[in-house]
Write a structure and sequence with these properties.
Layout: H1 2-16, H2 44-61, E1 64-68, H3 80-96, E2 103-106, E3 118-121, H4 122-128, E4 134-141, H5 142-152, E5 158-159, E6 163-168, E7 171-177, E8 180-181, E9 187-193, H6 194-197, E10 211-218, H7 219-232, E11 245-248
Parallel strand pairs: 2-9, 6-11
Antiparallel strand pairs: 1-3, 2-5, 4-9, 4-10, 6-7, 7-8
Length: 249
């Protein structure tokens, strides 16, 4: 029974190769005696399974999926990596949905490593986007979109290029979607992550969504699809700073 359980656990871990941001952790401090208890040998069943799959997995993870024009890093209020990511979310979600998607939103906390210049491997994508977060499309009333942007005046998250925020002295001074002021009564369709939909990173207004479209796509899948489209057209992975967020003190 132990061997069977260990086998299932390891296979599940290897299949996921990531963890979810949605997992709720509770921390408790305990005193641990650092003695020979921790010098236990490797579990042979687990090691055998890992050793069996590792060569094939290493080959797959080293596959080049695209070529980046420059190194792309993440950082507030906007960056090459965050802009590339959130604009890809908008593009792919619009391609998958039958209705218009008004804008896209993701969090900086989900971008965990820079995308290198030159060859971009499958491994690099897993490193940059390690979490098992799914793309969802929310229907959200304008008044809650305004609340969302007010929250982001204190802590900016990544938004698609058709959104403009002007933040002054830590407060939202102006917000435009496609160059138009927010209509409090309008229903906006927002492409984002299930982690954020559930109030992650304090984006509580997203929990007020009146409808949710599940795409079944991981954020990683979105990025792979975008890069595959660029590569098939002979294009480089590119991004640029668009001043979609202006912050004044």
């Amino acid at each position: 029974m132990l061997k069977k359980t260990l086998t299932i656990v390891v296979l599940l871990l290897m299949a996921n190769m990531a963890v979810s941001q949605e997992t709720a952790f509770k921390w408790k401090a305990i005193r641990v005696l650092m003695d020979s208890t921790w010098n236990s040998p490797e579990e042979p069943v687990v090691k055998g399974i890992i050793d069996y799959y590792k060569p094939e997995m290493d080959i797959r993870m080293q596959q080049v999926v695209g070529v980046s024009e420059t190194e792309m890093r993440s950082g507030r209020p906007e960056s090459l990596l965050s802009n590339f990511t959130v604009d890809a979310i908008l593009e792919i979600s619009q391609r998958r949905s039958e209705k218009k998607v008004d804008f896209a939103l993701t969090n900086f906390g989900g971008l965990r490593a820079a995308m290198p210049a030159g060859n971009v491997r499958r491994y690099d994508i897993f490193s940059t986007y390690p979490f098992e977060n799914y793309l969802v499309i929310l229907d959200l009333k304008g008044e809650h979109v305004r609340e969302l942007f007010n929250i982001m005046a204190e802590k900016v998250e990544a938004m698609s290029s058709n959104v403009f925020l002007h933040i002054k002295a830590g407060r939202l001074n102006d917000a435009l979607i496609d160059g138009v002021q927010i209509d409090d009564e309008k229903i906006y369709r927002i492409a984002t992550l299930d982690f954020l939909m559930n109030g992650g990173d304090n984006l509580q207004p997203l929990k007020e969504a009146v409808a949710v479209e599940q795409t079944g796509l991981l954020l990683r899948d979105v990025i792979f699809e975008k890069i595959a489209a660029l590569t098939s057209n002979g294009e480089l992975i590119k991004s640029k700073i668009t001043n979609r967020v202006i912050i004044e003190q």
